[in-house]
Amino acid sequence: MRKNKKWLAILIALFFVMSFSLPALAGNPQEQGVGNGLDKVKGQLKHERNITNFKAMEKNMIKVRNMDIDSELPSVIKEGRTLIPVRAITQGLGASVEWKNEIVTVSRDDIVIKFYLDVEDEDNYGRVTVSKDGERAQDVEIDAPPGFINNRVFVPLRFIAETFGLKVSHDKNTGKINIDDEEEDEEEGTISGEVIDEEKDPIENVKVSLFIEDDEEDYTYTDEDGEYDFEDIPFGRYTIKFNHYLYQPVSRAVYVDEDVPPVNIEMEAIDDDDLFVIRGMVTDDDDKPLEDVKVSLSVMLDDKYEEYGEVDSTGDDGKYSIDVPAGTYLLEFSLDEYETKEIKVIVKNTRRVKNVTLSFDD
Prior knowledge:
mainly beta; Copper Amine Oxidase, Chain A, domain 1; Immunoglobulin-like; 5-stranded antiparallel beta sheet; 31 strands
């Protein structure tokens, strides 16, 4: 009987001990505070340093101001959020990146974003702060925390872009993302210049093409003074290509803003030894030579014909002659009251003779 009472006393004591200790173990995690942006559960960080369970994106899926982002590592998608290598996003944004004491600082104009990534600093790990116009930095909450993949810092794309006042658009059909200035703030500039030859003389009829990446956005031709211009061009990076069948092609990169200096070009003529002759005679149905027949030329470039307009006209003997490098050409012969006629000519290191007969246009 004494033994039973002894065990009963022990059980009652244990009951009281457990009753007082359990609430302490189940306290509010926030009251156990380990710093903004961080909860610590059984020795584990809520936001792990290394990003896992992500899907890598294909290349050229993100553009910043009309330019594909070029990075050794692809951007990734985690839980529906796009994360990107921090240095890659700065390419088209004019931002700078600094890495010091496990703090990544991204700056653009008067906006500074800081990511605190030191896992040993429990009071600050996971913090994200933003300061504007030199004011005191404010902590912000983000739904896609930064982290590491292969020792490279990845940050939330939309958060950085929108903090810098940029617009993020997503094409649901292709999955592509484009980052640009807000439409209402879009500014435009002008590109202009002069094209001359090695003797400093203007070159007429040079095709001047404006490209964004590999896409031709617009084109024009130089006038008799060798001048050209593009107006109302949205700010951004472009490539200008200059082509003329008698000159070596030229390409220039240009950034359009409110003050674009003239883009003047000197083109090098193709060596005479690399030129060949397309010549012939234009006659009517009675084999009589036709004078003043307009001869226009188009050149095959990148699987399509580029028009160069009138390059010669027939004399009183009905003859014409055109110097060209090796290539594929389309000649157009036109004269009032006669049917216009086109012929394809392929020049392969030899002279070509093309006689043409024009008939009256009934």
